[in-house]
Amino acid sequence: MTLRLERQGAVAHLLIDRADKRNAFNQEMWDLFPQLLAQAMADPAVNVLVVRAAKPDSAFCAGADIGEFATGARDREWRAANQAAINRVQHELARAAKPTIAFIEGDCVGGGCGIALACDFRVAGPKARFGITPAKLGLVYPLHDTKLLVDLVGPAQAKRILFTGTLLTAAEALAIGMVTLLDTDPAAALDRITSELVAVSGHSQRMSKVMVQRILDGQVADDDTTRAEFAAALAGDAFAEGVGAFLEKRPPVFRCAPLLQPRRATARSWAACP
Fold first, then answer.
1. Most-buried pick from 88, 103, 207, 216 (CB within 10 A)?
2. Does domain 3-197 have CATH number 3.90.226.10?
């Protein structure tokens, strides 16, 4: 199986397992990714999702399978289905309810870089390299993916990356804000950040993600919805537990925020966080 989901405690790992192709994505993988993402988001035992290569010290993702793309791109229907699938992955990952981390030890290129950009955090080792290479293929990077890049590194650095197709070292990517954490022991860095994320209120994290996304989408002032969300947090169980734990000088034990059930369902459920 080229993609699979595994859980370790409160952390789900979405594993890219196609090392013989440097973890390049084919159409089947683009189609499968949103299903695994939805499973992780719907699982009340999962607090954090890590996207990573299944094989240690291998490429994170070399982008699209160029062999498949070169053949399929001649077919208008295949081309439309492929672009729709890629857009869905980037869009749904960027708006995933729970914190997401891309764990990168090797090359992270093209569509693979797009996946990493759509995550909340990027944890990298010193051998990681980053690049977006449509200029080398005569292609144009999609608007949504370009926005993710511009939001992260700013327009000048985004233009440099897109115009040249150059591969950045992990240190260069860290310097421009593309990488969140760079460590000679990236596995240890990943353990630290996941431990920090699972120790605090999932409800606060999820609502903060919503607020940040609203800002990135252009909202600049509170409206009735954001004011209601803030008021609801003050009246919520998570706030009561956080204040109680602070006053009692003990670690807080948060319950998971109400999560939407899988697509098209409207019921909500509460579940204790692990």
1. 103
2. yes
In the chain, the amino acid numbered 21 is K
Q: Please report how the helices 76-94 and 27-42 are oriented relative to each other, as an axis angle in degrees rounded to 10.
A: 30
User: Under CATH, what is the fold of the domain 201-269?
Assistant: Lyase 2-enoyl-coa Hydratase; Chain  A, domain 2 (1.10.12)
The residues spanned by each domain of the chain are: 3-197, 201-269
pLDDT digits (tens, 9 = 90+) for 106-141: 999 999 999 999 999 999 999 999 999 989 888 888
Of 183, 206, 201, the closest CA to residue 240 belongs to: 201
- The pTM assigned to this predicted structure is 0.86
User: How far is the C-alpha of 123 from the C-alpha of 10, rounded, in Å?
Assistant: 18
Rounded CA gap, 5 and 137, in Å?
32
In DSSP terms, which residues pair with 5 in a beta bridge?
14
